[in-house]
Design a protein that fits this description.
This protein has five domains: 3-76 and 622-648, no CATH class; 84-228 and 605-619, von Willebrand factor, type A domain (Rossmann fold), CATH 3.40.50.410; 233-318, Sandwich (Immunoglobulin-like); 322-527, Rossmann fold, CATH 3.40.50; 532-592, Sandwich (Immunoglobulin-like), CATH 2.60.40.10. The chain has 649 residues and is α/β, with parallel strands linked by helices. This is VWFA domain-containing protein. Residues 94-198 form the VWFA domain. Residues 1-76 form the Aerotolerance regulator N-terminal domain. Keywords: Membrane, Transmembrane, Transmembrane helix.
């Protein structure tokens, strides 16, 4: 506090001067005995009445005016404890990086880290002036724009009010990169990035945040990075299979799991427990008995920094989707001296789905639930039950590949390929030796040239009505389809007019065949609907007409992107998904890295007080001036009223 400020505040002491002067006038006179005074009647104490305050209200108003005048002279600017940026006198463009990841749910003194960061963002926006620009980037993975750059500070404050904490992972690097693009080209001279985060992105050993940045990066609110009172453990998955529940756990460090258990609950009843392994990532197996249709929940005992990830629904084992291969393994094994050629090709591609050979196409719907794709090589038609199940499989998002061959063309009575192909087909010699690379789909690339001289023993000829309903992916040299595909419901059907058997051609031994399989597997992976996925990853519903998703936070909005409906679960827990009237359960699971609450290092410049701090300078002189004017006006009214009363008397 400066000397001038102290001197100005000293003026406020003058408010006591009139009062003390008045008190001096009220001293009692010395009394002396005088006998004749008893003969004189007593007179009223007029001097004492004059010493009293005639108008206490007027005296109080004048005293308040003196105090207000002292405050106005002492400090037109006062300091308060709130977050604000240091200003150089010019207009400012600021991008606020607000971390909405799961680690920001850690609680201290009854308030989450996100709530503190949200309040800090409000204070920064409140410190901006007319002509300043603001943008907001959310650092939950994947990083995304919460508000594009704008000089409408009211709109910025409104947008901030609508931002809530989520259970996403953390993507600070991506958020800062986006923030730079939002403010780098703005006309304001002073451009900077403000990071409001606990910096717990699971990369505590990575390069310091803000290093090498061409724009100033201010990592504000160091209290967000204070160590949590306890570490954190989370349930990543709880899968039920064969009378047991396998629970996968992740902890920030091993000691957090010490002495804790995982309990399986049916409502409020505990039906099984197991100790947590004292590791950062591990599994606990809990034996359970009884009805498999019960809705069970896995829950960690004890407490930790984040309570929301200590509980997860138990689902029927939900591993990665598999790819089923339907073919005659006996014939193929003899020809190749090992596994069928299609299985060898899938192994060579190192697909991230399990390849499961099955002897025939499924004829029960439950037999298809584990598969994202089914590949049938030269099947002798499908029975009515198989056709119904396969059609339902495709409608629900599965991908079916049918390689037609000699046996397909000679399907027995009652077996056919409806509803995928409605007409009869014919096996005949091929009038051309191979495919036409120039018309191949883009995913073949240079490998398409390897399919130009297949020299097959024959091929299937489709009816024109069936050909017209499919999109060609690869054609024979004469224009007939070699590989084609067709969308149905949320899935897709692929057909080939040449089987994969090496007895018919060396189609399956060419590089182009691997490119075809890779595209097929990619399509299956994209359309697969995993029962459990990481929180924050979008759920795509290609081909669905109506989608409703209800989760822990209520109904979720869906958007259309690329012609497909999409929903993003941002909160952990179970979701009820209704697709075209059919309900299914999905689970949004936590990300293991979010249990590591260790903050990432930052550069010294990113925490410099020259960028800002927790003390702000606020101009309140106009408020004091208005109060002083109001006091003067009230005094004027009181004096006028007093004169009017005296005149009337």
């Amino acid at each position: 506090m400066s000397f001038l400020t102290l001197l100005a505040l000293g003026i406020a002491a003058l408010v006591a001067a009139p009062y003390f002067a008045h008190r001096l006038r009220r001293q009692r006179a010395e009394e002396r005995s005088f006998a004749p005074a008893r003969l004189v009647p007593p007179a009223p104490p007029k001097a004492r009445r004059r010493a009293r305050l005639e108008d206490r209200h007027l005296f109080a108003i004048r005293a308040a005016s003196v105090v207000a005048l002292a405050l106005l002279g002492a400090s037109p600017l006062i300091r308060c404890s709130r977050l604000a940026m240091a200003r150089s006198g010019t207009s400012v463009a600021v991008a606020i990086v607000l971390d909405d990841s799961m680690s920001m749910r850690a609680v201290k003194d009854g308030k989450t880290r996100f709530a503190r960061a949200h309040d800090g963002a409000k204070e920064i926006l409140a410190s901006l002036h007319a002509g300043d620009a603001a943008a907001i980037v959310l650092a939950g993975s994947p990083a995304r724009v919460g508000l594009a750059s704008t000089t409408d500070l009211g709109a910025a404050r409104a947008a901030l009010e609508g931002m809530n904490e989520t259970d996403r992972g953390t993507d600070l690097d991506g958020a800062i990169a986006i923030a730079k693009t939002l403010v780098a080209d703005l006309p304001q001279i002073d451009r900077r990035i403000v990071v409001l985060s606990d910096l717990a992105d699971g990369k505590s050993e990575a390069a310091p945040l803000g290093e090498g940045s061409n724009l100033p990066v201010w990592v504000a609110m160091p209290e967000l990075r204070e160590p949590a009172a306890a570490g954190d453990c989370a349930i990543l998955a709880a899968d039920r299979s064969s009378g047991r529940v396998r629970v996968r756990i992740a902890c920030g460090y091993a000691a957090v799991a010490k002495g804790r258990q995982v309990a399986i609950k049916d409502g409020d009843k505990v039906i099984g427990t197991a100790p947590l392994p004292e590791t950062t990532v591990g599994e606990a197996i809990v034996a359970v008995t009884g009805d498999d249709t019960r809705e069970l929940v896995a829950e960690l005992t004890g407490g930790d920094a984040i309570a929301s990830n200590d509980r997860a629904p138990v689902v029927v084992e939900a591993g990665p989707a598999a790819l089923a291969v339907v073919n005659d393994r006996t014939d193929e094994s003899v020809a190749t001296g090992g596994a069928p050629v299609i299985e060898q090709a899938l192994t060579a591609l190192h697909v991230d789905m399990a390849v499961r050979p099955i002897p025939q196409a499924p004829d029960r719907r439950e037999d298809t639930t584990a598969f994202a794709a089914i590949l049938a090589d030269d099947p002798p038609g499908f029975t009515p039950e198989q056709r119904h199940v396969l059609a339902s499989f495709v409608d629900r998002g599965g991908v079916l590949f049918i390689a037609l061959g000699r046996r397909s063309a000679a399907a027995p009575l009652g077996a056919n390929f409806e509803p995928f192909l409605g007409r009869a087909m014919k096996w005949e010699p091929s009038p051309t030796p191979g495919a036409k690379p120039a018309d191949a789909a883009a995913f073949f690339g240079e490998a398409a040239a390897s399919l130009s001289d297949l020299a097959p023993q024959g091929r299937v000829k489709l009816a024109e009505e069936d050909v017209s309903s499919y999109e060609p992916v690869l054609t024979w040299a004469d224009g007939a389809p070699l590989v084609a595909r067709h969308s149905r419901g949320r899935g897709e059907i692929w057909i080939s007019t040449l089987p994969f058997s090496v007895d018919v051609s060396d189609f399956a031994l060419r590089p182009g065949f691997l490119a075809l399989l890779d595209a097929f597997v990619t399509q299956a992976r994209e359309r697969a609907a995993p029962r459990r996925s990481d929180v924050g990853l979008p759920w795509n519903f290609t081909g669905a007409r109506q989608v409703e998703v209800a989760g822990p936070s209520g109904q979720l909005p869906n958007v259309t992107e690329g012609g497909a409906l999409r929903v993003i679960p941002e909160v952990l827990g179970a979701y009820t998904v209704t697709l075209d009237g059919v309900k299914e359960l999905r689970v949004a699971a936590p990300i293991a890295a979010e249990t590591d609450l260790r903050p990432r290092n930052v550069t010294a410049s990113a925490t410099s007080s020259s960028l800002g701090g927790g003390e702000a300078v606020v101009d309140v002189s106009w408020i004091i001036a208005l109060a002083l004017l109001a006091l003067v006006a009230i005094e004027t009214v009181l004096r006028a009223a007093t004169r009017a009363s005296e005149t009337a008397t």
